[in-house]
C-alpha cells in the first residue's frame, strides 16, 4: 500500500508537478518585476514537495483548502497554467473570471476550494467539507493547508476539537516555513505545534517537507486511514520559502540572513534532491528530465503570453455573481 | 386557520425542509436533546437523528466556518446561533468567507446556508444578550437578511431561506417565540424582497421590521382613534429590500416613519429612510423619521431597559406630530 | 510558604467565604422563584471551594475576570452583599448602578474586572491585565476564571500562546463542572484539557475543586511563582454545579440524573467537607460555625430586604456612561 | 509649512504620545522591526523598545482582547490591525467587550484604547483586503470612529484618540500613506466631533469621509469650471458626528451629496443623509444623494475594481445633475 506510488510514472509525475510549481512562480515573479502583475503575490518556491507530496496522495474527489501562498497547492491539485495566469492578471478566462486573483484562486473541478487571504480563514471550511463527507457517507478526504503563522489563530483549535470529537476525514497540513511575514516562528509559537494537535487527541506527525517521497508516503497512509474513519490527522511539514513574504519583500536581511537562504537552496532544495534520486535510481536520465523541464518552461511561457493578451472581464460582470441564482 | 407559535412555525419549516432535502442539516449549541434554550428545535433530533441535528462545543467561529465548508461542497447547513449578539464572533466566517465566496470564485462556488439567530431587548438579559444587529450584516454584499414579524412570516421565510443558494441570515425576535399567529397547514413559501402591507392607510406610512411591526400596528390602532389613517408595511427581508412597495406607499401617504429595533445611528432605518428620501422626495410633505433602539448598550435594569426600545405610544406620538405638520426630530 | 494560610484565621475566613457564597445563591434563587428577580441567573452553589481557594490566595491588587456564573467569584474577591443584590435587582446602588446585572457584575475596588456573558469573552481581558502588570513592572497576578465549555473558544489558545511567549503573570482557572449548559464535557472536549495548556509550554495542574485547602495551597504556590515571572499557569478544577445551568433549568433529568447530583451533594460538598475538617482539627466547634452561618444568613436577609426597597436608577441614567469623559 | 506623508504623520503622533505618556504602548503583527507592512511605524521600536512596541502572533481576537484588559487596568494600548477587513475577526472583543464595559460597569471601568486600521480599495488586493468597514463600528454605541482625510487630520486625530478615555477606531486610507500635506511642527490636536469645511461654496454641499474628501475636492474643482460652487465638508469623525456644521451648510446650499468608500447600502452615507433630511428637510431643494462603493465584494481584476469606487468625475456629474434640478437616483 505504502508503495503504491513507487513506480516510474508516479515519481515522474511528482517531479513534473514540482517543476511546474517552480516554473509557475518564476514566471509570476517575472510578471511582478516587469510591472505586469496587478497587486502583490506570495511565492511558493522552495515548498514544492509539500503541496506535491500531499496532493499526489489525493484524487479529484478529495478537497483541499489553500492559503495566500496558494499557487503551489493549485498546481499540485491539477490546475492548468493558462487559467491560473489569467486569474493572476485579472482576466476573464481566469479560474475565477479574474475576480479572485492570486489570493482567492480556486479550482473547483479538481477539488481546490480556494486560496484564502485571511490567515487561518479556511480551517473551518476544510473541516466543514470533511463533516459533509461524513454526513453524506462519501469517502473523500479534505486537506487543510496552512502556515506556521496560522497556528496562532484560535479557529484552528475550535475546529480540531470538533474534527476529533466527530472523527472527521480531514488532514491538517501545517507548512512550517520558519516565518510568518517578517517574524520567526519561535517568536510567535510557544510550546510544540504537534503537541497542540495531540492534546485534542489528534495523531500528529512531523515530516521533512523538502522530501517529496517522505511527504507522499506519510500522506497516502493517513489518507487511507482517514477514508476509513480513523481521522483526523495533523502533519507539520518543515519547509522554507525562497522568496520574501511576498514578491515586494526584497530587502529582508533585517529578519533573515542570506546565508540561511543559501543553505536551504543549496542543500535542501526539494527538486534538486528528488532529481538526484530519480537519476541515481535510474528512473530517469538527466536528459529526460531536462527535456521535461524545457517542456514545462514552454508551457508556462505560452500561458503567460496567452494571459497577457487575454481580455479583461466585461464591465457588466462587476455586479454579477454577488448572489447565486 | 390554526394558530401556532413563532417557535412552532420555525420548527415546522425546518422539519419540512429536512424531510424534503436530505442535504439540509442543523448545527449549533444545544440544538439536539435540549432543542435550544428557547426550545425552538424540540423534537427534531428525535426525527432526524444526531447526524442531522448536531450539538457543537461553544465554538461559534468554528462551526460557522464548518457550515461554510459543508455548504461549498454540497450540503445545506442551518446554523443555530443562540443569541444574535454572538454574531460578532462569527463575522469573519460570515462576511469574509460565506458572503464573498460566490463572487470571488467567479460564480463557481456557492454557499447555500442559513444562519438563524435572534434579536430583541426587554428580556432583562443585559448588554451582551439583547442586541439587534441586523444592520451589520445588511451592509455586506453577498448576504441576504430576513426579519420575520410573526409565525406566518417565520415559517415562509425560513423555507425560502433554506432553498436559497446564498447565505441567508434570519433574525427571530426572541420575545415573540410564544406569540401565536394563523399559519396554514398547506405548504407555502414567502419570496424574498416582497414587502407585506399589513394595514392600509392614507395619511402616513409606518415601516417596521420584526418586533417593530407589532409596535407599528398597535400605533396604527391608536392613531385610528385620533382619525389618522396609518399604513403599516413589513419589508420582511431587508436584503433584498422591496423598495417599490415602500416607495409607492409613501408616494400615496406623503409621510413615513421607519422603525427597527437596532440602534438608531448607522442602523437599518437610515438606509430605508434614505431610499425613500431619494426616490419619493418630491412626494414627501415632511421628513422621513426614524426610530430605533437608543444608542446605548442595553442596560440590565428594567427601569432603564424599557426606555431603550420604541413603544407603540412613542410611535403614535411621533406619527401624530408628523401628520400635524410639526417639524420634529425623533430622538 | 505553602503553609502561610494554615492558621485559624485563614481557615475560618475560607469557611466564611464559602458559606457566604452558598447563602448568597440560596437567596438569589429565592428571589427568582418568587419572581422578584429580573431575568435569569446562574448559580455557583457547589463550586465554592474553587472561587474561595483561589481568591484567598490573592490580594486586592490582584485581578480576576469572571463568568456568567460569577457571583461566587465576586463574593470570594471581597464584594458586599448589599451592592451585589442591588445589582441583581437592577438598582442604582448596585456595583454597576444596575446597568450590568448578574452577568456583568464587576467590583473594581477588589480587583474583580467583571463577569462576562460571552463564554470565554474575558480570556483576552485577563491576559491583557497580566500584560499590563508586566509592562508596568507591577507584581500583581491576574486569574482568569472560565468553565470547561469555554475551552472550546479559540480565543483561549490565542491568549495562552501569547501568555506563554511573554511569561505573563496570569493563571487560567478552568472550572470543570462536567457540563456546559445541557451537554456533558466529554461530548464537547476532545483529548485532555490540561494537555492543551501544556502544548503551549504552560505548566498545568488538575486539582479537586471540592477541596478548598488543596485549591488554596496550589494557588498560593502558583501565585508566588507568577509574581516572580514564572507564569503563566493553568489549573483545571474538578467541580460540580448543584443547580441547573440557570435558575430556570429545573427539569434536567434528560441530561443529568438526580442520583449523580445527590452523589456530589452528599459526598463531595466543599462546605460540609471543610466544616468537618475544621471541627476535627479543633479549629472551630460546631456551635461556633453555626453562629457564623447564622450571622451570614442574617447579613444576606438584610441585604435582600435592603435591595428590594432600594431605588432604581433614574431614567436620566439611561444614556449616561456610554462614553467616559 | 513643512509637508509630511500621512504615514509620517501617524508615526509622529504616536511617538509624541508615547513620549508624553509611559502607559501608551503599541501591539500588533509585525509592528516592531518591520514597522508594519506599510512601514507606518518604522523607527518606533528603536526608540521605545520591544516592551512598548509589541509584535504579536497572528491572533487578532487575542491581542484585541488583551488590549481591552490592559486598558481596563491602567494602560493605553494602540492596537494595530493590519487590514481593516480583519475587523470582522475582532468584532466580539471590540463591540461586546471594549464598547460596553464602561456602560455595563456603571461608569466604573474605562477602556482607553485606540484601534488603528485602514480602508480603501483599488490596490488590487481583492475582496478580503480592500473593504471600508466604518459603518459597522459606527453603529455600536461606546465606540468613537475617526476617519482622517490627510496627513494633517491623521496626526491631530490620532493624538486626540490616544488621550481619549474610550475605545476609538481610526481608519486610515491605505492608498494615502504616501500622500503629503502641510503639518505644523508645533503640537496640535483635532477635537472629535468637529467637521472641517475644506472649501466654501454656495450651490451644493459635498460631504466626504477619508479617501472621499479628496474625491469631493477634485469634483468641486470640476464643478467650479461649470460655474457650480460646491462646499466640501469633512466630518473627520463619524462618531461623534458634527451634525451642526453639516446642517448649517445644507441650509445654506439646499443640496447635498454624501460620499463614503464603504458599501453604499446600509452604510455611513445613509445615516448622514437621513440626519440632513430630518433636520434640514424644509431647506432642501432636492433629495440628499449618496455615493459609496458598489454593493459587491471588491473584485481583484483592475478592469472591475476601478468601477466600484466613486470617482471625482462621477461625483461632479451627480452634483451637476442635482444642481440642474434633475431628479436622479445615484446608483
Ligand atoms: C487574519 C489575518 N491576519 C494577518 C494577515 C496578514 N498576513 C498575511 S500572510 C501572513 C503571514 C502568514 O504566515 P504563515 O501562516 O506562516 O504562512 P506563510 O506566509 O509563511 O506561508 C500575515 C500575517 C492576514 N492575511 N490575515
Ligand atoms: C459565546 C457564547 N456562546 C454561547 C453562550 C451561551 N452559554 C451561556 S453559558 C454556556 C455554557 C458554559 O459552559 P461552561 O463554560 O462550562 O460554564 P458553566 O456554565 O458550566 O459554569 C453557554 C453555551 C454564551 N453566553 N456565549
Ligand atoms: Mg510561515
Ligand atoms: Mg461547565
Rg of chain A, rounded, reads 19 Å
Q: Poorly predicted ranges of chain A (pLDDT <50, ≥5 residues)?
A: 1-5
The side-by-side strand order for the widest beta sheet of chain A comes to 1-2-3-7-6
Supply the number of helical segments of chain A: 12
Number of strands of chain A: 7
**Euclidean distance between termini CA atoms of chain A:** 45 Å
Element order of chain A: H for helix, E for strand? HHEHHHEHEEEHHEHEHHH
Strand content of chain B: 15-25%
Class of the largest domain in chain B in CATH? Alpha Beta
Bound molecules: thiamine diphosphate, magnesium ion
The share of residues in extended strands of chain A comes to 5-15%
Oligomer: heterotetramer
Can you walk through the features of this model?
The complex is a heterotetramer, with two copies of chain A (325 residues) and two copies of chain B (331 residues). Chain A has helices at 8-33, 48-55, 71-76, 81-88, 123-135, 155-166, 185-188, 193-199, 212-227, 258-267, 270-280, 286-309; strands at 63-65, 142-147, 170-176, 179-180, 183-184, 203-208, 233-238. By secondary structure, chain A is an alpha/beta fold. Chain A has a domain at 46-67 and 114-281: Thiamin diphosphate (ThDP)-binding fold, Pyr/PP domains (Rossmann fold, 3-Layer(aba) Sandwich), CATH 3.40.50. The longest helix of chain A has 26 residues, at 8-33. Residues 1-5 of chain A have low confidence and may be disordered. Chain B is of the alpha/beta class and 331 residues long. Chain B contains eleven helices and 14 strands. Chain B has helices spanning 6-20, 44-48, 60-72, 87-104, 134-138, 151-163, 211-225, 243-253, 268-280, 302-305, 312-323; strands at 3-5, 24-28, 53-55, 76-80, 114-119, 144-146, 168-173, 180-182, 196-199, 204-208, 230-234, 237-239, 256-263, 289-293. A seven-stranded mixed sheet of chain B has the order 3-2-4-5-7-6-12, sandwiched between helices. In chain B, strands 9-11-10-13-14 form a five-stranded mixed sheet, sandwiched between helices. Chain B has a two-stranded antiparallel sheet with strand order 1-8. Chains in contact: A-B, A-C, A-D, B-C, B-D, C-D. The interface between B and D is large, with 57 and 57 residues. Bound molecules: thiamine diphosphate (2 copies) and magnesium ion (MG) (2 copies).
